[in-house]
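I'd like us to work through together how a protein chain folds, taking it slowly. To get us started, please write out a protein record for me. Label the sequence line and the structure token line clearly, so we can match residues to local backbone shapes. Once you have written the record down, we can walk along the chain together.
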Amino acid sequence: MTIRIEASDEMCRARVTGEMTIYHAAEMKGELLLCLERGAEVEIDLSEVGEIDTAGFQLLLLAKREAATAGKPLRLVAHSPATLEVLDLFNMASYFGDPVMMPRASR
């Protein structure tokens, strides 16, 4: 798992690569909270997340809550199939408020 941070005064972008799992949760929490401190807006790119478990999902919930508390917009973008599956499983896509393209259900 890696998180690449690109920050300016206006925006902090975090690009997550690999697994968002309990094995990386502590490290990821620190990185995401640091990103929240850096920019007026926060964007988390999930395009390269290959696996996400409940700990990873809880980190996204934490980031959203902390951003709201700080009055900063937070967007999840470029959802990977793994992140879409978790958002669908927990029926939480609307909570984050980001446009997502849910795959068609297989018949």
